[in-house]
Amino acid sequence: MSNPFVIAAHSVTRADLATARLGQRFGRMDLTCQLSLAAVEPLAPFFDSFPRERIAIVLAARASSLPTDVMYWEGHNEPGGLSPTLFTYTLPSAAIGELAIRHRLRGPNLCFVSNGHEVLSEATGLIITAEADACVCVFAQVISASLTETIALPETARADAVFLQRTGPGLLELGENHRDIESLCANLRAQN
Amino acid sequence: MREVKAAIAGYGAICAAGRGVAALTSALEHNASCLRPDERFSGPRFQSNIVGAAPIDLDSDDPAYQLANIALRETITDVRKNIDEIAPERLGFILSTTKANIEALERLFDGRPCSAAARRHLQPDLLAADLAAEFGARGPVQTVSNACVSGLVAIFQGARLIQRGAADAVMIVGVDHLSAFVVGGFTSLKAIDPDGCQPFDQNRRGLSPGEAGAALILVRDDLAPKASVIVRGWGSSNDANHMTGPSRDGAGLALAIHAALQMAQLEASQVDYVNAHGTGTPYNDAMESAALRKVFGATIPPVSGLKGMLGHTLGAAGIVEVIACLIAMQKQFLPGTRRLQTVADGFPNSLVKEPRPATQLNRVLKLNTGFGGVNGALILERK
């Protein structure tokens, strides 16, 4: 079976969220979820070609949920105590949950904590083995200013998203030289 | 071309039952309740101090590493009986965790001592990298964090890596430690049973937090002829319904189970036993019962859940509960559901309260679900 095809791709930074209107839940989400949803939103029209249980989600979070963990734990000595809303987002896979709810995606899902290196290859694996017919791939990088004191990563807030499906033509066929989602998205932006 | 399968060649664990597989085996055979009051979680900030604590050093600043290390050491010892040698470059490593060493975050906030290693292990991928290096795995290294389905997803990943030829063996470890961070969080959601969880019981009121380190090694089945259990199939899905509550009709979990059965090329009637997620929350247990009815109809095989024994061990749950299944398959008995007294109306009649010999225990279905609507189903088969 051939490699899957990149049908659409989109990247966002925190600045893009100022104009994002993505439902009532959006304002309550943490930054990782907001960036992930904003990155995936332009890909959504392509989902209609598939039954929703045949679309997988593969997401990697660069810093796990640590920025939200810090915000949540800041409340532990506050009079109101810990926030149940924030606790919900102290999982890197929370963004998968929000994506699934917004787009009714009921297929397999994978969540990694990493630099995103495995997102495209694992999504490809799901499609080639027919566990899914298409895959929403997301790489979310959120490192807050307070977190840079604790982990050796620079401050950033961005997400890259790609929609892969079994057949083309799409933008391109995923190849061996398309190693990671971040550089793939950067190359596609450069071509445009 | 012969399809490559992944076999389970060894395992190890530390959990509320004690240190080592022998302790877990004894707890399973005696249907022990290992949930106990823990002074660390007493007081108004926590809904209950009844938790499933493992016998680790409470003064450690790196409990996640401690739990994982203990489990992996036992696994390595165990696996040497089953396989000769796997080249390091062909040995993969997967960590399953939801919070890694969250202890470090608490210490940093409080100004308590926190070593550089403990702080480093706050990041799950760095914990994975350090463990992989320590245990000689120079193949693919991954960190899976899929909420409470992480353990099962890590096993799916290990099997996938073997099937596509990326590794000949994969070391898989699940770990999460008890913390004020997590117990306080479940308290904020009012999700904890003040008296200890009662899975599938008509009086169930919530979960009991637990901790564990649990590890196993998957090996290409032709390299582990003495290994007796293979990964036959798996499936995952998302409810796409709610962030913390499962869909009431069980359709999402049923989808995952059907996917696992399809991959395994099995009929539902060929499953001998179901090890449930069974948290003891009103909604989870009801959803799981609904899913089992959807899949199995009127003939649900024996079902039991282990969280009344061990507590909910989050990222370790899938793996420690799979290890319990492996013990049961080896000894041919059905584990009980500790703390289940009266089965709730409409729940499976086949729920097993007390352990008993199995007529046959060759194919086991293991289920887990989690926040964000995630569902996982794994089918194990004795060779």
Overall description:
The complex is a heterodimer of chains A (192) and B (383). Helices cover 28% and strands 22% of the residues of chain A. Chain A is an alpha/beta fold and 192 residues long. In chain A, helix 1 (31-40) packs across helix 4 (94-103). Chain A is globular. With 383 residues, chain B is an alpha/beta fold. Chain B folds into two domains: 6-223, Peroxisomal Thiolase, Chain A, domain 1; 231-382, Peroxisomal Thiolase, Chain A, domain 1. Chain B is 32% helix and 21% strand. In chain B, a hairpin with a 2-residue loop joins strand 1 and strand 2. Chain B starts with 5 loop residues before the first strand and ends with a strand. The mean pLDDT of chain B is 96. Chains A and B meet through helix 2, helix 3, helix 4 and strand 3 of A and helix 3, strand 6, helix 6, helix 7 and strand 9 of B.
How many DSSP-defined strands of chain A?
Answer: 6
Indicate the percent of residues in helices of chain B: 25-40%
Based on helices, strands and strand pairing, what is the structural class of chain B?
A: alpha/beta
**CATH architecture classification of chain A:** 3-Layer(aba) Sandwich
CATH homologous superfamily identity of chain A: Thiolase/Chalcone synthase
User: What series of H and E elements makes up the topology of chain A?
Assistant: EHEHHHEHEEEH
Radius of gyration of chain A over all CA atoms, rounded: 17 Å
Amino- and carboxy-terminal Cα gap of chain B? 20 Å
Low-confidence stretches of chain A: none
Helix content of chain A: 25-40%
Quick recap:
The complex is a heterodimer of chains A (192) and B (383). Chain A has helices at 31-40, 66-73, 84-88, 94-103, 119-128, 181-191; strands at 5-13, 55-61, 109-113, 134-143, 156-165, 172-173.
